Amino acid sequence: MMDTNRPAISRVVRCAVLGFILSAHLVHAAVYQVGPDKPYKRPSAVAAIARNGDVVEIDAGTYAGDAAVWRQDNLTLRGIGGYAHLRADRQAAEEKAIWVIKGKNVTVERIEFSGATVSDRNGAGIRMEGSGITIRNCYFHDNENGVLGGRGEVLIESSEFAHNGFGDGQSHNMYISDATRRFTLRYSYSHHARVGHNLKSRARENRIFYNRIMDEKDGDSSYAIDLSNGGLAYVVGNLIQQGPNAENKTILTFAPEGFSHSQNELYVVNNTFVNDNDSGRFIAVAKGEALVRVVNNIFVGPGEQVTRPVEMRTNLVAKDTDLVDRDGFDYRLRPNSLAIGAGSDPGTAHGINLNPVSHYLHPRGHQARPVDGGIDIGAYEYDKAERRKTSP
What we know:
Layout (H helix, E strand, L loop, with lengths): L5 H23 L2 E4 L8 H5 L7 E10 L3 E3 L5 E12 L9 E5 L4 E4 L1 E4 L9 E13 L2 E3 L3 E13 L2 E3 L11 E3 L3 E7 L2 E3 L8 E2 L3 E5 L2 E3 L10 E3 L4 E5 L2 E4 L7 E5 L10 E5 L2 E4 L5 E5 L5 E5 L2 E3 L3 E3 L4 E3 L2 E2 L5 E3 L4 E4 L14 E2 L2 E2 L4 E4 L3 E4 L15 H7 L2
Parallel strand pairs: 1-2, 2-4, 3-5, 4-6, 4-7, 5-8, 6-8, 7-9, 8-10, 9-11, 10-12, 10-13, 11-14, 12-15, 13-16, 14-17, 15-18, 16-19, 17-20, 18-21, 19-22, 20-23, 21-24, 22-25, 23-26, 24-27, 25-28, 26-29
Antiparallel strand pairs: 30-31, 32-33, 34-35
């Protein structure tokens, strides 16, 4: 006779085993506290003993010459009470970076990385070798690379990258590898890369939303955004500026090293581009099979908008009088700007609504983009409701 209770019993057993595993994980999860007055004085002391799923809390302050390799999965590493500043002082884990992260699904929050340098001139604040990493509210400056590598999904948000690069054009504020399936950069401030790029990515898919990417008055970066091998890319709602000292006069480039992905599409929507150089190109697209859509962008300054025929719709070549303060990098719209209400619906792509829903808020933040009538061209929506409230 068939035992009709056996499937139910099996489900009970499986649930019990799963519950035991989960309970065991929760029991072993720990919070490690690091600081001058805490049980662990330096982050590297915890790197040797932490286990999967643990949390490492590092008091604000400077930790000089402390480098570490993190091998744990599902780890959270965060500063407490402000930035925990990891100043390299010529120390590097595995001769690669201040932190080498090998574990999967690691989160890094409120950490400052500076001074990473190694013999091959490729030292990084973080070398990303594990699959899946989130970097949030962090600050990378004066390293040979801010971040380098990446596997699986990489998310960087509300973070700042400044003055990274050796100066040879081979190291950058951010350098994302081709092992990255999806790279997302949002609400971040990348500026003053030293000769290299403010953002260089070889990822299969790039989502670059609501950032400030600039040389400003004295930066000498090459590209503002280098999507080296094409792929699927969304560049939406960004403030993108090339300075007078830029090493390369192209601002955004798509596949300059050739298309190496099976899907190659570029959507450039509702950005404000400003070229403060004497000439240049705003968007350069390599020859080859690629779908490119350029919609609702502001272009200020000299230069060719796009280097090859692509779909272009409701873009505006603007004047200084369209922006609140071009010289001060305040690219919000003036009340009389021709960009107001002149945009069009950019549509969707692969299930992503290309209509901007936020705008960048300096520094390293964002706000909801106002909705009041037709969409404006550029990275900012003129706040008509606020204007009505303040008008006499």
